[in-house]
Design a protein that fits this description.
Elements: E1 2-3, E2 10-14, E3 21-26, E4 31-37, E5 42-47, E6 53-58, E7 65-69
Antiparallel strand pairs: 1-2, 2-3, 3-4, 5-6, 6-7
């Protein structure tokens, strides 16, 4: 999980093998602000300090990294 650097109430969480989604949460309201299927287990998430993006690292089955633009992807 990772806190957004420009929206302090926004938290991103990543799912394991059975879930495979990155989810956004508004922690002030408790509401989900979106979910994206990553096609593989989410091992790490990090928000960019310079752009409205986050990077995720993945394990089984694809074993790759991906950059996501917020909020469009």
């Amino acid at each position: 999980m990772a806190w957004c650097s420009w929206k302090l109430y926004l938290l991103a969480t990543g799912g394991v093998t059975a879930d495979i989604h990155i989810r956004g949460w508004n922690v002030q309201s408790g509401a989900s602000v979106g979910a994206h299927d990553t096609e593989s287990q989410v091992c790490s998430i990090l928000w960019s300090q310079e752009r409205k993006e986050l990077i995720s690292g993945h394990g089984y089955a694809l074993k790759h990294r991906r950059i996501w633009k917020y909020p469009t992807e």
